[in-house]
Write a structure and sequence with these properties.
The chain is α+β, with helices and mostly antiparallel strands. The chain contains 17 helices and 23 strands. The chain has helices at about 45-65, 105-115, 120-125, 135-145, 145-150, 160-170, 175-180, 195-200, 220-225, 240-250, 305-315, 320-335, 375-400, 415-425, 440-450, 455-460, 480-500, and strands spanning about 5-10, 15-20, 25-30, 45, 70-80, 85, 95-100, 155, 170-175, 185, 190, 210, 215-220, 235-240, 255-260, 265-270, 285, 295-300, 345, 365, 405-410, 430-435, 465-470.
Length: about 500
């Protein structure tokens, strides 16, 4: 039997899982890490640290699985988008990675928008706004603020590219992850020439572009020694984490909708054609891991990350960390009535993405009274993410695509109370998936296709879906959630002028 390795390079953790060729899980593990915030609006992590965490993770995972490294046929990587890593001529990092959450390049984003215009940016990349998240804006910031690093950079890479380089010694990237870099034209399937000229870089300073699920090469001897993997393993291109999550659930047909509550919230709808530009409707429409398809991707900057921050900061006295802390927050949230007795939260702890696209937005609790206790705050966080989900679903339905079932994945899907709140707030059936490591499985599927185990992504994903629990909306909660959802929207609208005025 062949085994498949899927790696998920997330925002605050690296996950890895070994699957049997039928998609069943053999073993999985995770390595958490803490991002660095050297200054306000700056988020970084040592580039070498990603590799060190991966080496520890794969060695431990092999021990846990009891699988010989030689039994693993292939590997691929599911990756966070936009995070920028700069390497010199010898392949050494010149500075810490600038993480996608970083907002330092706001001025450069505004200048880029003025130069190209939102319509051209969307037609090229599928991104409806020009914000400091995108990789191109970070490169522009480097050119202005760290010219020595900019000049010495031989290769500008994304995180998946860097890990593939460490594994194979080759500089490659894939088309899906590039969509939000603002460096690649997803419809013409080539580097965006005018953008590269604007940034002053040539294609030689970028990796080779390959389709998702394409063979890159075998693991090098050095990488095998450092990771515990075999030199026989075939390394392949993966996809952006959200896309890998879709592939890993098998929900890749046009019309199916998934949501992932991980560090951020991502809602994905598969479509057959690129959605035309609309000045009034700001959506993201990216290329899919499946050639010829697109994904409407609506995402919100902070979701599970808010809960992680909250548990860390407000459950210290209980000495509850990780899963134990989340379980305690869930238990307390269940003590509070739907609607939190009027307490509403804006979960924008690192700016706001779709549909506000406001890097200056901040987190807010509104409606605190003398009766408000910690359980209220716990539930308000869960409800706030559900409100973001509802707003995203409304945008998908405005495209003419009805949503009846939400297929839920990510760490948030492990919480029954959160799933029920999402069902009640949206009025939709929420169905979890037994595949808890969907992004890792999606990466493994793409690796299997590259290795020739399956002829294409559709056939590889077929039969992988194993339905989990279903959560039907409670009609009696609809009225209170409709009102609180309106309060949530009104609260943002009222505070939006203050975010700009009092931004740090």
């Amino acid at each position: 039997m062949a085994y498949l390795l899927g790696i998920d390079a997330g925002t605050t953790s690296l996950k890895a899982a070994i699957f049997r060729e039928d998609g069943t899980l053999a073993a999985s593990d995770v390595e958490d890490y803490v991002l660095l915030t050297p200054e306000a609006n700056q988020v970084e992590f040592p580039a070498e640290g990603y590799w060190e965490h991966l080496c520890r993770l794969t060695k431990r995972l092999l021990r846990e699985a009891g699988t010989a490294p030689e039994e693993i046929l292939s590997l691929a990587i599911s990756s966070q988008g936009e995070t920028l890593i700069c390497l010199d001529e010898e392949g050494k990092p010149l500075r810490p990675a600038i993480v996608w959450l970083d907002n330092r390049s706001g001025q450069e984003a505004a200048e880029m928008e003025a130069r190209f215009g939102l319509e051209d940016i969307y037609q090229r990349t599928g991104q409806p706004e020009c914000v400091s998240t995108w990789t191109a804006t970070k490169i522009a910031w480097l050119r202005r603020n760290e010219p020595q690093v900019y000049e010495k950079t031989a290769k500008f890479l994304l995180l998946e590219d860097y890990l593939l380089y460490r594994l194979t010694g080759k500089y490659v990237c894939e088309e899906n992850l590039l969509a939000s870099s603002l460096l690649y034209d997803i419809n013409r399937r080539c580097w965006w020439k005018e953008m590269l000229e604007y940034l002053g870089i040539g294609e030689e300073r970028l990796p080779q572009v390959l389709p998702c699920g394409t063979l890159v090469g075998r693991v090098t001897k050095q990488a095998a020694e450092e990771t515990g993997l075999s030199e026989k393993i075939l390394a392949a291109t993966g996809a952006m984490d959200q896309t890998c999550g879709i592939v890993g659930t098998g929900r890749i047909a046009p019309g199916e909708v998934t949501e992932t509550t991980g560090s951020c919230l991502a809602v994905c709808a598969n479509v057959e054609q690129f959605i035309p530009y609309s000045r009034e409707r700001r959506i993201t429409c990216q290329n899919h891991a499946v050639p010829g398809r697109y994904v409407v991707l609506l995402w919100s900057q902070t979701a599970g990350m808010v809960l992680k921050w909250y548990v860390k900061e407000f459950y210290q006295e209980d000495k509850a960390e990780g899963a134990e802390g989340f379980a305690m927050a869930d238990k307390e949230a269940a003590m509070v009535n739907p609607g939190c007795d009027g307490l509403v939260m804006l979960p924008h702890l690192s700016g706001a993405s779709n549909p506000e696209y406001n890097s200056k937005a901040k987190g807010v609790f509104y409606g605190v009274t003398l009766k408000t206790g910690r359980p209220h705050f716990s539930r308000a966080i869960l409800e706030s993410v559900a409100f973001m989900l509802r707003r995203n679903l409304e945008q998908i339905e405005e495209l003419g695509q009805p949503v009846h079932v939400i297929y839920s994945m990510g760490g948030g899907s492990k919480s029954p109370i959160w799933n029920q709140i999402k069902a009640d707030v949206t009025g939709k059936m929420v169905e979890t998936l037994n595949t808890r490591d969907s992004a890792c499985l999606g990466a493994a599927v793409l690796g299997a296709v590259a290795a020739g185990l399956y002829p294409d992504v559709d056939s590889a994903a077929a039969g992988l879906v194993r339905p989990g629990e279903r959560f039907a909306p409670c009609p009696q909660n609809r009225a209170v959630y409709d009102q609180n959802y309106k309060n949530y929207l009104d609260l943002y609208d009222a505070l939006e002028p203050l975010f700009a005025r009092y931004s740090l």
